[in-house]
Every structure is written in structure tokens, then in C-alpha cells.
Specification:
The protein is built from 7 helices and 10 strands. It is of the alpha/beta class and 260 residues long. The chain has one domain: P-loop containing nucleotide triphosphate hydrolases (Rossmann fold). Strands 6-7-8-3-9-10 form a 6-stranded mixed sheet. It starts with 10 loop residues before the first helix and ends in a 12-residue tail after the last strand. The structure holds adenosine-5'-triphosphate (ATP). Adenosine-5'-triphosphate binds next to β2 and α2. One of its GO terms (molecular function) is ATP binding. Keywords: ATP-binding, Nucleotide-binding, Transport. It comes from Actinomadura gamaensis. This is ABC transporter ATP-binding protein.
Length: 260
């Protein structure tokens, strides 16, 4: 049985959780002196330079910045897709920067859910199969868990449909269900509304926001769209591979109230 219980915390609860977590000294993610270079010699690209950042459990953090500022690189490092050139990446207190390939793969599978701009669903599999098979669920409860994940993002009625029979927003919900079905503490989203229309984008953002509010996921969301920042708990701006600014949002908007 899928065991997650909805806690539906209010925003003031969230602030309290962040304060509690800060007091306990264990952020969900802690980056310290993080750098990433691509290439060597004069052709070296310094994608990230000496980035330090702490993200607290249950926080919804939006990363903003112009093209090439290092947003996706940061997400890929936290997600264990790439290794840093220097610095530490602590996730729930464990440094993942030094893990070997096998351990990083295990980390990714157990601790991280990814949501991308393009939903990356397999067209020949149903929504349910896209969740169960692509998340590599096994055992007698796989179907039940996948159905519960689809229900938690409001799309269980489409469980037996193929991607070609669903709207973009529905497909993105399936992709989110796939990302959360193993209940990873970290949800990393790279332009999750980039290929959706405004209304559908708002609905998908509402789903992501609710997942953070329920307290099961810390969300890091990369976007070009500064309007989305208004629904975050915190906004981090990147420029040329460094954090140029950070701001806590005093009164985050509900996704449906976003205008852009
Ligand atoms: N695999 C790679 N090899 C070489 N350079 C790379 C690689 N990946 C990223 N870069 C470079 O690192 C820098 C940061 O790229 P990144 O994709 O992180 O930026 P971004 O802010 O996510 O950009 P965008 O908003 O356009 O997706 C850019 O100069 C990019 O060209």
C-alpha cells in the first residue's frame, strides 16, 4: 500500500518547518563552493562558479536566470546526473559529490524525481505503465502504487490512456506521477511548463506546489519565466554561473493566480 499521508500544511506551517529544519542544522540540500567546468584549456566553460546554497525540507525554490547562466547544470549536479569539478553537494547530510557511478545511480533512483519540459513518456505504454515500468517498480503492489501516484496528481481517470490520447498537461501530470511514485524527497523540475499553454501550465504548477505543501518533497524548479517565481517560497537568481541574488517570497501566490 502506498503509505504517504497528506499533511496539507499551511504556508505558516511551512515557514515553521523551514525554521525547525534550520535549527536542526540539516538542510534538504546544501551546496558549498560548488563549481562545474566543461572542457579544458582556453575552451573551458565555467558553468558554475563557487555556488553555495541551502534548501530546506519542504521548500519550493525557483531558480531563475538567463540562458546559459547555469540553471540546468545546477539541477543536474544536485540530481547526480553529473559530477562537480569542485565543492560539496550534501543531500540530507550526505555528500553525493564524491559518490562513484554506481552509488550515484542508486542515489538518483531512490532520492530524486525529475520532471522535464518534454514529458518523455513512452508512446506505446499507457499512463499507468509509464509510471510503473519507467519508474522500475516491481512486485505485486506496483500497479496500486502507480495508480495512487496518478491519483495524487489528479489524473487517475486517464490511467489506461496512451500519451497520444492525452493533452500536454495530462501528459506532464503522468510524468510528475512517475517522478514521485517512489516518494523521493527531492523533486527537480527543469522548465516543467515550458511546452504548455498558460492555463495548463498553472495547473501543473499547482500540482507541484501541492506536493511541496504536503511536505513529502522539496522542489527545485528551473525556469526562464519570472512570473512563476511569485509562487515560490524562495527565488534564487543565477548569472554567469554564480548566484547573483536570493529572495524569500513573503506571500507566495497560488498557481491559479499567476499572470504572465
Ligand atoms: N555538456 C556540456 N558541455 C559543454 N558546455 C556545456 C555543457 N552543458 C552546459 N554547458 C555550458 O554551460 C553553461 C551553462 O549551461 P546551462 O545549460 O546550465 O545553462 P541554463 O541556465 O540552464 O541555460 P538555458 O536556460 O538556456 O537552458 C552554458 O555556457 C552552456 O553552454
Amino acid at each position: 500500500m502506498w503509505t504517504r499521508a497528506r499533511t496539507n500544511r499551511s504556508r505558516s506551517d511551512l515557514a515553521a518547518v523551514a525554521e525547525e529544519a534550520a535549527a536542526s542544522g540539516c538542510p534538504a540540500v546544501r551546496l558549498a563552493g560548488l563549481s562545474k567546468d566543461y572542457g579544458t584549456g582556453p575552451a573551458t566553460v565555467h558553468a558554475l562558479r563557487d555556488v553555495s546554497l541551502e534548501v530546506w525540507p519542504g521548500e519550493f525554490v525557483v531558480l531563475l536566470g538567463p540562458s546559459g547562466s547555469g540553471k540546468t547544470t545546477l539541477l543536474n549536479l544536485v540530481g547526480g546526473i553529473e559530477k562537480p569539478s569542485a565543492g560539496r553537494i550534501e543531500v540530507a547530510g550526505t555528500d553525493i559529490a564524491g559518490l562513484d557511478e554506481k552509488a550515484r545511480t542508486a542515489y538518483r533512483r531512490a532520492r530524486v524525481g525529475f520532471v522535464f519540459q518534454f514529458f518523455n513518456l513512452v508512446p506505446t505504454l499507457t499512463a499507468l505503465e509509464n509510471v510503473a515500468i519507467l519508474a522500475e517498480l516491481t512486485g505485486p503492489d506496483a500497479g496500486e502504487h502507480s495508480r495512487a501516484a496518478l491519483a495524487s496528481v489528479g489524473i487517475v481517470q486517464a490511467a489506461d490512456r496512451f500519451p497520444g490520447q492525452m493533452s500536454g498537461g495530462q501528459q506532464q501530470r503522468v510524468a510528475i506521477a512517475r517522478a514521485i511514485v517512489k516518494e523521493p524527497p527531492l523533486l527537480l523540475c527543469d522548465e516543467p511548463t515550458g511546452s504548455l499553454d498558460l492555463d495548463t501550465g498553472r495547473q501543473v504548477l499547482g500540482v507541484l506546489r501541492a506536493l511541496a505543501m504536503e511536505g513529502h518533497h522539496t522542489v527545485l524548479l528551473v525556469t526562464h519565466n519570472s512570473a512563476i517565481a511569485r509562487m515560490a517560497d524562495r527565488v534564487v537568481w543565477l548569472r554567469s554561473g554564480t548566484i547573483s541574488r536570493e529572495e524569500r517570497v513573503a506571500a507566495p501566490l497560488k498557481a491559479e493566480d499567476l499572470r504572465w
